[in-house]
């Protein structure tokens, strides 16, 4: 037996939700069912819930683009393949 679940969201959000669901080929009802089952199986929200940027602390004045210039370096061979992972690249033949 199934039961009906009802919630309220603003019209624009509902329209955007429907568009995303349609784009991935699922009904909005199906997406909500998947979410509900995910919560039950995970015993919590099945993804990270984080604070919105407006709630996050503001950066210090020193924390601006380029503030670390000259304080960090990267070795010339940074992108070179590591011998430890040679077997995973299929090169050990």
Average of per-residue pLDDT values? 80
Total count of helical runs of at least 4 residues: 2
Oligomer: single chain
- Fraction of residues in helix: 25-40%
Give a count of the beta strands, DSSP E runs of length 2 or more.
0
Distance between the termini: 57 Å
Structural class: mainly alpha
N-to-C series of helices and strands: HH
Tell me the radius of gyration: 24 Å
Tell me the strand percentage band: under 5%
Spatial shape? extended
**Poorly predicted segments:** none
Mind explaining what this structure looks like?
The chain is mainly α and 93 residues long. It is built from two helices and no strands. The chain has helices at residues 11-24, 28-42. The longest helix is centred in the middle third of the chain and has 15 residues, at 28-42.
């Amino acid at each position: 037996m199934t039961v009906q679940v009802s919630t309220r969201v603003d019209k624009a959000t509902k329209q955007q939700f429907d568009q995303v669901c349609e784009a991935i080929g699922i009904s909005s009802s199906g997406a909500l069912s998947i979410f509900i089952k995910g919560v039950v199986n995970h015993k919590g929200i099945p993804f990270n819930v984080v604070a919105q940027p407006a709630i996050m602390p503001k950066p210090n004045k020193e924390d601006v683009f380029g503030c670390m210039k000259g304080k960090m370096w990267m070795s010339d061979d940074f992108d070179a393949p590591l011998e430890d992972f040679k077997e995973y690249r299929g090169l050990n033949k």
